[in-house]
Specification:
This protein has about 650 residues and is of the alpha/beta class. About 35% of the residues lie in helices and about 20% in strands. The strands form 8 sheets. An 8-stranded mixed β-sheet has the order 12-11-8-6-7-14-15-23, sandwiched between helices. It has a 7-stranded mixed β-sheet with strand order 5-4-17-16-18-19-20, sandwiched between helices. Strands 21-22-24-25 form a 4-stranded antiparallel β-sheet. Strand 24 and strand 25 form a beta hairpin. The two termini are about 25 Å apart. Bound molecules: 5'-O-(acetylsulfamoyl)adenosine. 5'-O-(acetylsulfamoyl)adenosine binds next to helix 12, strand 24 and strand 25.
Length: about 650
Amino acid sequence: MSQDTIESILQEKRLFQPPAEFSEKAQIKSLEEYKQLYDRAKADPQAFWGELAEKELHWFQKWDTVLDWQPPFAKWFVNGKINISYNCLDRHLTTWRKNKAALIWEGEPGDSRTLTYSQLHREVCQMANAIKKLGVQKGDRVGIYMPMIPEAAIAMLACARIGAIHSVVFGGFSAEALRDRLNDGQAKLVITADGGFRKDAIVGLKEQVDKALANGAAPSVTDVLVIQRTKQQIHMEAGRDRWWHDLQKEASADCPAEPMDSEDMLFILYTSGSTGKPKGVVHTTGGYNLYSHITTKWIFDLQDTDVYWCTADVGWITGHSYIVYGHLSNGATTLMYEGAPRNSNPGCFWDVIEKYGVNIFYTAPTAIRSFMKMGEHHPKARNLSSLRLLGTVGEPINPEAWMWYHRIIGNSKCPIVDTWWQTETGGIMITPLPGAIATKPGSATLPFPGIVADVVDQDGATVTNESGGYLVIKHPWPGMMRTLYGDPDRFRRTYWEYLRPKNGDYLYFAGDGAHKDKDGYFWVMGRVDDVISVAGHRLGTMEIESALVSHPAVAEAAVVGKPDEIKGEEIVAFVTLDSAYTSSPQLEKELKQHVVSEIGAIARPGEIRFTDALPKTRSGKIMRRLLRSLAAGQEVTGDTSTLEDRTVLDKLRGGA
Ligand code: 7RM
């Protein structure tokens, strides 16, 4: 981001106070209350988290120690026994919430379903018993590859109930990406559906599973459980594949939740890093349950009658923490929508809000920017007066989009929570508490109580002026990732040893750059590593490059992000070809398609530029900084003296 933009952002003068009528009823009612919580948590984190864990959650057995911190490895609520499925379901059944809507689901072709807490509990127990019968035991890994249907949440909760570790793979990923993730986690079972409705098409999920498992390529998988959704013809492999509706008929609805150790693994979720293969982020039971629960309660300001809707997919961390676990643990009503806005149905989100009287709405800046483009007449034609709180997540939100969201969707009365966090953090880290903290368009504002965030330089020292630096977290928190699955060393290196202050402290480095303004507000600027954010989805440049070079025509590839008005960034790939091939529009198409089949449609390059050579340093490192400027159509500035061959740059400029 250019210096100009940083300066203009930091000069943002608009300040939006929480509306008085909102604060009065809010969970956290004032800045003073926030500050008290924050200071208390900072002064005595163990007491702060221990008291919340006791008050907010059910434990089969209390812990001995709140935190055991052997940097960078943390254990929370040591020896405590807990089950998150119990906290999300069973404990509500003895209260008035028994027949409250837990999950409201709106299907893409217009079908819908509502499950009360007792109905959801019943289905989760049935699925838990069914997968037990298939041989799944405590500690086994289960792949979940599903469309946005209630059974996706049911499958997660069923795993959690019996202590199986789920690994949800976004339904938009390709068979290859699915296979890599199943193999990395050595999954025993895959839960999927025949297909799913995506925009105006049907996607063959089971078909992708078949491809992923073909020829023994994912040998750990012995069983596949298939939910019937689209009813298209699919192949069912005898002895391996079973229909859920067959097993459900025989499955008992009695399945006590397994008391899990607080530090037992709850799930693995893969996320892109700057190098090679995706990282299996590990979250454990007790700490994650508490952190997703309390952030949900305070940030989304849950009230008993709220209908809450998050537009993310359960395949991402946002869907895990803020569609399923955080909200059900609180006994809230969470809405799940299978559809997506598109030109043929540009108002579908606003229809859903009107139909269900949604009160709290959580979406991504990229979606907001596309709504702006579609025009305000769509939301204006619907009654959105039920909304009282709005949220955003996934990438920095530009002040213009923030203002549009505030005015057009929020009718200038709803607070906006711009929530900064990551797959790795388990829950929201920097955010307004909507009844307490005044907002500035484009800033995620202040850290959640218990989170010690800072902006530091390369030596890990606090940056004192507003010039910016690396965003770090200085103290462990309950929702933090515990390790990378099967690779504790990479966990240590990537997150905890990137920045090491002289005093030997461990800082968690998130991979983002940020600024802190005079009021202590955080302005997150985006990734400083080789991770691209396309429509809020994290993609590693290396993953895409590996996909490209796996095509016989490609000799070398370098991938960078180019600013895009709607999606935040678009993928531009610089490619050199094997001498037996020549560039052509046909080959460009083929390479794009190749990336789609290797990773999935979200990774499709917007542009492929063929070139004779890539700009490299003498030590052979591709100079992405130059490529980024070129991709954006900007002048290449800064130091180019380390370039091995300067003519390469001239050729690239010439549009070679
Ligand atoms: C929840 C999620 C994480 C990355 C993170 C940032 C970016 C997310 C914001 C944001 C600015 C925000 N998990 N990011 N939220 N940047 N403001 N409010 O997105 O693991 O998929 O991505 O997303 O770069 O590091 S994620």
